[in-house]
Fold GLPGLI family protein.
Amino acid sequence: MNLLYLNLLFFSISVYSQDKFNIEYEKRSFLKIEGNNAEYRHMEEEFSKPSYIQLLGDENKCSLKQIDRISNSQGPRTQMTMIGAEKDLESYLDFTTNEMIVSKELDGKIFLITSKIQPFEWKLSREIKKINGYNTKKATFEKDGYGYEAWYSTDIKSKCGPDNTFGLPGLVIEAKMTFLEKPENYTQYKLDKLTIDHNLTFSVPKKGKAISAQEFKTYRKEYDKRLSEMYGNKGVDKD
């Protein structure tokens, strides 16, 4: 019995360390809008509705994009956006070459940004918990006014994770990004599906105007200045 258990365990670890994964995360954003207004409460509810991210990954590569799910139980959804928000359409990371390519939308334009993967200063904790049957460990870091918390599983040998939660010694199973000035405003990611797919191929973004990370940073700064002149600090819109 012990030998059988060890053989199954070895097989499981081998599969997770060698194969490619098709993963889907549920993403939910929670935004607290100040003011006692029924429209604000409706906007908060719309923001919190789930969206989904597909991640194709292995130990050293991953590609991500947002996917649409249609549910007959849900009525029409108003797409809520923040004025000035940028949207990652598709991303590709290769940790063997340390290269990242992102197709990003901003100001009605699409940019194709190639840069080096900048490692995050993750603080690895001894705190552990089981999520969806996976043994996970906690990691945290802070950057640009946001706090990141990720729960990753070393049982699955991959450096991948949703959005900015990558570079850990195991696949990210669950994550949370919190606006530090207003902790009630946060985005959470939860693993929804994981399947092994031997035949998947990674998608490398090609859509958009080729631009360097520094050039995009400069454009972003100029765009924020224009928005500030037009709207001040207000930033909620409907599509």
In short: The longest helix spans residues 213-231. The domain at 2-233 is CATH 2.50.20 (outer membrane lipoprotein receptor (LolB), chain A).
